[in-house]
Please model this.
Amino acid sequence: MAAGEIQTPQEYIGHHLTHLQMDLRTFELVNAHNAPATFWVLNVDSMFFSLLLGLIFLVLFHKVAKSITSGVPRKMQAAIELVVDFIDSNVRDMYHGKNKLIAPLALTIFVWVFLMNFMDLLPIDLLPYIGEHWLGLLSLRVVPSADVNITLSMALGVFILILFYSIKMKGLGGLTRELTLQPFNHPIFIPINLILEGVSLLSKPVSLGLRLFGNMYAGELIFILIAGLLPWWSQWVLNVPWAIFHILIISLQAFIFMVLTIVYLSIASKDH
Model:
């Protein structure tokens, strides 16, 4: 739906909640409203912005690391050092063990999720307008963490690491005993234990991904509602306070995702 064809607030809101998708069978860009209900559809906008923000994170940190000085740091170096020290102190407090992967993983998760969340603070019509009028795109959503596919994919990656470290530290037999002999340590309760522990294990990635998605989708929707239901000259009355409060939300959601990842991996790495 082109911006010129949008006549009602309902159409405006629906347009901003529509992904730019690609049918992987034909490699054609389609509108989410007209896309076939099939597995072979990719949300191009979510993938593009998540990869772009990840690349920005890598390039920025690499550039600062190469030009680091031991004297009075520059503003960017000081900011990155504060983030690194903050992540390092949290990892030391929550992860009881030695693992060279945990701290870099926690840093990557925190900064990457924060950058994806930060896209929600851009003017709601800025990038969609550029995409439609300059690039001819049908629609565009610019907040990757408001796409459940992105958040659950990240949570799935954490879940794979949980299984890996559980098997590495306990062995396959140890993990099996943990799932079948807890909390009731008797063979007769194995089916019950398996159900309870299986649900507990599977709930970790599901809750991790859905928590981030739910909060960011709600925040994005509020910005869209303000822009779609209020006249342009009065939107700042609600937009500015909500944007200021939303800075806390996007930071907190990145921190929670990072903390839960560290805690889950710490539990998985314990040799019971």
Summary: The first strand starts at residue 20 and ends at 23. The beta strands are 20-23, 28-31, 41-43. The chain has a mean pLDDT of 88. The radius of gyration is 22 Å.
